[in-house]
Model the fold of this input.
Amino acid sequence: MDIQRKEELFEQAKQWILEAGSHIRDHIDAPRSIETKSNPNDLVTEMDQQTEQFFADKIRDNYPDHLLLGEEGFGDSLEDLKGTIWIVDPIDGTMNFVHQKRNFAISIGIYEDGVGEIGLIYNVMEDVLYSVKRGQGVFKNEKQLPELNDSRPLKESILTLNTTWLIPENPHVEHESIQELVKTIRSTRSYGSAALELAFVAEGIVDGYLTMTLMPWDYAAGAIMVQEVGGTVTRADKGELDLLNSTTVLACRSNIYDEIIDDYVQLKTKESDR
Done:
């Protein structure tokens, strides 16, 4: 993607994400229509749907040759990653949106032929925008973030992970190995929004993020950011991320990447068999 086109797309996406965030803030206390999707904890509201519809309309009106991959069903049916694809999560952290009215984000990743070119993660209620243009650095509002510190060892690291992976009943990873990981590191955090957790890795305020199930719209923008500041982002078996399906994700400082996967991540099934 040439520099001028990237800049134009970035500025347009930035305008839209700030507009969508402002609308959400203005209506944060409005009565909610709440539904569930795949399970009782997988929530969706009319605001999720309205926000994705907003982006779908804007993209199709302004970039009719672009494609949209979105969470709420307003996108296109994709079989490959050819062309320019907007990967949008209208509200990442819907449970936080419903229960806390904070700690949620709008996430947009723009990919061209499978390469992440632009990423935006908007922490709506704090009015903080993380953004990246590949090759031009990551910014938190107007301040550029530094490269990640690759000198701190795993034992002094903070990882974000869901405590679900610590229990025997989880179907994806051997819980004993994750328990040993938790014993080894300094501490854990869980914010309830994958997009924000990836932004925090890019910012360097946490050292890594590990999950066993994540959809492309959850990590499309954040993966670009973490890589841009020198971090590593792959599946938990070291394979490449799958932007068309659910996947495991490890995003972290590069110096702790091998140690986490080789010593502590024991998947119950091969990712390719899922």
Observations:
- The first helix runs from residue 3 to 26.
- The longest strand covers residues 84-92.
